[in-house]
Amino acid sequence: MKRLLIVACILMQLQAFAEDKKNLKAEIKQVTVFLNKAQVTSSINTQLDPGSNELLIDGLPAGIDKQSIQVSGKGDFVIMAVKHELNFVDPQKKSKEMIALEDSIRFYQKEARKLRSLNDVYAKEEQMILANQSLKGEQHTITADQLEDVADFYRERLEEIKNEVIDIDEKLKVIQEKADRFQRQFNDLFNERNKNTSKVTISVSSKSGGYAQLELQYVVADAGWYPLYDIRVKDTKGTVQLNYKAQVYQNTGLDWNKVKVKLSSSNPALGGAKPELYPWYLDFYEPKPVVRTPRYKSEDETDKKKEVKSMSWDGYAAGSAAPAPAMSVSDYTTVVENATSMEFDIALPYTIPTGNTPQLVDIQSHEVKASYQYTAVPKIDQDAFLVGHITDWDELNLLSGNANIFFEGTFVGESFIDVNNTNDTLALSLGRDKKVVVKRNKIKDFTKKNFIGANKKEEYAFEIEVRNTKKESIDILVEDQIPVSQNSQIEVEAIDTGGAAYNKDNGKLQWKLSLGAGETKKVLFKYSVKYPKNKTVGGL
């Protein structure tokens, strides 16, 4: 009896303690998405009682960085303490989509049960007919007409049953496929929703109580963004339309519904500590002789081996014109340049659901001037590539990322914008142009092999033909190469560079050609390689 009273008292105390805590909901108002992680700002409105108040905000993402939690507020109160802890018990509430999927699953499962029950009825009817097909009677004789009628009945009814069973099996297959499809979709959402959550308890002291408005801010993992570009070029005489976009992803477990979104170019995951240089000591290497002694395995040795397997080589644990174009979100984006990063502030509210599917967000749209030049490297690829050269590109606030290329209204392929180069001009590859035909042929008449004493001399000649089938003139840079020797016994001579700019250090040849509409030009270059005849030169 005493034990029961003690348990009852403890439960009453726990209940009273739970009732003292106010369960509140934090409404997400703003999200700053970094390249890795995101900072979430939520608002909390409540009525405080005089004295101490315990405010519980539950259902928060489990990936919160507890060091980043900040709480501020407006009102006549004092924030005494903030505590964060994981919640492994309470699952998140089902979304409207999950509830709708559950209803669909139940409906199709019910239809499937009906069809299976009907199948059972037909099976029992078939068994009953087959069990009573005996025509023998003790006092009556069966005539031929009666026998024929009975046979017709058995045949027609059994055929009807078989056809009905076939139809039911087909319907059952279709319904089961739909139910399975909805079940898989529900399972995906369920797995996303039922991740571990966390909660924040805020201790507040208020003299008189009253209305209070608090702001909860934290950094959460499983979120970020990366740049993506659409580059559109109408023709080689116009400008480049560069659409700056962001693929925003978040798998925090909470939907960001109609929130203000900022995209930041900073990356908190990299850390902000300045690297330090320590003395770099040099000394002579003196290998120690290896002394091998017989060893015997023991339990201690086995344990040590297990420890070694879990350590890395340095001793640390392993694994560490027309109508006006429609406006887009980019028209409502403001760029803010900070000391160490950039922020793209989107004025329109945005909805980014939790999950593994990135959300495409327009950031900015630029129309920039560019100069165009064709480039061909026929030794590697006998297609001409159009390259756009953009100056003052550092003013566009770009980040390195993939780009979709559209030329003359057609998607021509993907490219990559590398903003880490230090050139004044940003080169954008705009894809292949089949209207510029490039051919590279070895000239057999000039290609020969001679033996000079103890040496062998090989001569090579190549002709490059460029034909412009376009209706306008073009400029094209054609590149090829002459081999470079790295051995004093191998002598390379550039016999004829064909008027190209020749770099002896890397062997590169460059021709800058201008071709009118329908014009064809050819260039020829020759070189020789001399080396000992008893040797073999790789790469020729």
Low-confidence stretches: 7-19, 295-320
The biggest beta sheet is recorded as: 10 strands, mixed
Report the principal-axis shape.
Answer: extended
Mean pLDDT: 80
Helicity level: 10-25%
List the total number of helices. Answer: 4
Distance between the termini: 99 Å
Name the structural class. Answer: alpha+beta
Number of domains: 4
Question: How many runs of DSSP E, i.e. beta strands?
Answer: 26
The ordered string of helix (H) and strand (E) elements is: HEEEEEEHHEEEEEHEEEEEEEEEEEEEEE
CA gyration radius, whole angstroms: 39 Å
What percentage of amino acids are in beta strands?
A: 35-45%
Features:
44% strand, ten-stranded mixed sheet, alpha+beta, seven-stranded mixed sheet, 21% helix
Structure in words:
With 540 residues, this protein is of the alpha+beta class. The chain has 4 domains: 117 residues, no CATH class; 89 residues; 151 residues, no CATH class; 90 residues, no CATH class. 21% of the residues lie in helices and 44% in strands. The strands form 4 sheets. Strands 15, 16, 19, 20, 21, 22, 23, 24, 25 and 26 form a 10-stranded mixed sheet that branches. The chain is extended and about 110 Å long. About 7% of the residues have low confidence.
